[in-house]
Each structure stands twice: as structure tokens, then as C-alpha cells.
Amino acid sequence: MSQVIDTEFSYQKFGDNCFQLTSRFQFHSRIVTGNPATMAFIQYDGEGLFVLYPGFCWDGASDGNPHQTDKELWFSIMHDCKFRLFREGLINPDEWFTVANEEMEEDARNVGISHLVADIIELAVQEFGKKNAYGGEPILIVNSHLPRTITDIKNEKI
Predict the structure, then answer these.
(1) 20 to 30 A Cα–Cα from 58, which one of 20, 36, 42, 136?
(2) Radius of gyration of the chain (CA)
(3) The sheet that has 11-13: what strands, in order across it?
């Protein structure tokens, strides 16, 4: 199970399942690579500490519930940031994919999601999440209250 360090958790919501972090959020994970990694809005110390910074965007839990609680969003933001680091090749998904999914299931149960629903979410991500761990749709970025993807930003004229 991941250990949340910052319990003051704030975000903005855009649409049904688009969230942007407005506070710093830290947690510990069993993912220990020994190699620190940094990318936009994410810092990982290589020893299990993840720090997410204001501006980080994610799409909430995979269950599609548009009325998610803060605690439900905790487990989804932690899982999402791990997958971002997988996609960028900063953490090896071959080694840590299963651990990330196990932690997500444990975190979901810890915030009150039923065992059955947590098991279903974990099985679905284990089965279908590899495309997101190894590539897939561009990462969502929110700027000026308009959802954009990295592809949109790369195609903009400077």
C-alpha cells in the first residue's frame, strides 16, 4: 500500500473526469529503483518517494464515477503518476507494473472501495493498462481551463 504524506489535497475539476492538482501531494510507494526521475509536475527520489506539484493533471479513477471523493482520487492520482513515469521510460514497467497495480488495489480498499470493486479495478488495469504503461494516448495537460494534450502543444507555433 502507498503511504500518503500530504493529507491536504486540493485540485480543480474540469468536466466529469479531468482534475488538476492545486497543492503539492507526496506519497511513498514500494517502487524502489535506486534511480531518481523528474518530469513535468512529478519528482521521484528513486527510494519510493513521489512528489506531485500543482499543475499535475489526471483523469480520476477508472471506474468512470463523476462524483469521486478526495480519497478515491488519492489512489487514482498515485497510480496515474507511476504510469506517467513508466510511459516516459523513467521507471521500468516490466519490473514495476504489477507492483503499481497491487498498490492501487490496496489503496482503493484503504479508502473504502469494496474488496470486489477494488479487485475488478485491479484486474482491469492489469489486463488493459499495459498500453498506457508502455505508450498510448498522449498525456492530458490542462492550461487556461482548456484540456490539451502534449500532441497539441508540440504542434503549436511559437
Answers:
(1) 36
(2) 15
(3) 11-13, 19-21, 57-58
**How does residue 139 score in pLDDT terms, banded at 50, 70 and 90?**
very low
User: Which of the residue ranges 49-53, 79-83, 111-115 has the most confident prediction, judged by mean pLDDT?
Assistant: 49-53
- Of the candidate ranges 80-89, 100-109, 138-147, the one whose mean pLDDT is the lowest: 138-147
Strand partners, 58: 19
Length, in residues, of the chain:
158
Asked if 25 and 10 touch (Cβ cutoff 8 Å), the reply is: no
- CA dihedral sign, ordered 105, 108, 110, 112: negative
| Residue position matching grid coordinates 463523476 | 66
Taking Cα atoms as reference points, which of 149, 150, 27 lies closest to residue 100?
27
3-state helix, strand, coil in the chain (%, to 5): 40, 20, 40
Beta bridge partners of 38: 43
Number of structural domains, the chain?
Answer: 1
